[in-house]
């Protein structure tokens, strides 16, 4: 079940994207589909939701993200450059106005040594930005919701 804040964000983003006549594509890993679920929970989402991918594994990244945007050399997951790449790539893959991406470690710590609660977010479109989230929590589910909420807040900031 979505939190009240996610439901609110979904409605606000839906309204902003419809008003602007724009679309969004989502690339998420540690949020596990919560970002897409939030946007798709709003009736009429096909007007603004171009599609999404859960890029939790290297195989998924290769299958869904390879194409129009080349990944930076030496890039690794759960970093600012990786999140920025995912956001630009998903927008290009889907022909969307905006790309929104999340890459982090919900818990336990990831193979790179990043702590649980560590996440990079990126938005790519008419304006672009990244944001770093550190929850300080080991609670996997809480971190997933925190990452999704922060990602959607980042997108909404750029839409308003």
Please render the helix and strand layout as text:
Elements: H1 4-20, E1 24-28, H2 34-40, E2 49-54, H3 58-65, H4 80-94, E3 98-105, E4 118-124, E5 129-134, H5 140-159
Parallel strand pairs: 1-2, 1-3
Antiparallel strand pairs: 3-4, 4-5
Helix pairs in contact: 1-5
What does this structure look like?
The structure is a single chain. The protein has helices at residues 4-20, 34-40, 58-65, 80-94, 140-159, and strands at residues 24-28, 49-54, 98-105, 118-124, 129-134. The chain has 160 residues and is an alpha/beta fold. The chain has a single domain, classed as Alpha-Beta Complex (Maf protein), CATH 3.90.950.20. It has a 5-stranded mixed beta sheet, sandwiched between helices. Strand 1, helix 2 and strand 2 form a beta-alpha-beta unit. The longest helix is centred in the C-terminal third of the chain and has 20 residues, at 140-159. It starts with a helix and ends with a helix.
Main attributes of the structure:
single chain; 160 residues; alpha/beta; five-stranded mixed beta sheet
């Amino acid at each position: 079940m979505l939190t009240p804040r996610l439901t609110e964000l979904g409605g606000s983003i839906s309204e902003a994207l419809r008003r602007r006549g724009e679309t969004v594509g989502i690339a998420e890993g540690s949020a596990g589909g919560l970002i897409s679920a939030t946007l798709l929970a709003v009736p009429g989402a096909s007007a603004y939701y171009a599609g999404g991918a859960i890029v939790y594994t290297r195989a998924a990244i290769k299958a869904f993200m390879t194409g129009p945007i080349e990944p930076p050399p030496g890039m690794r997951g759960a970093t600012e450059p990786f999140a920025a790449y995912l956001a630009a790539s998903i927008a290009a893959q889907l022909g969307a106005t905006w790309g929104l991406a999340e890459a982090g470690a919900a818990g336990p710590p990831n193979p790179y040594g990043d702590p649980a609660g560590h996440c990079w977010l990126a938005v790519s479109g008419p304006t672009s930005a990244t944001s770093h989230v550190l929850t300080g929590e080991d609670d996997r589910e809480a971190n997933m919701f925190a990452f999704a909420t922060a990602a959607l807040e980042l997108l909404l900031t750029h839409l308003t």
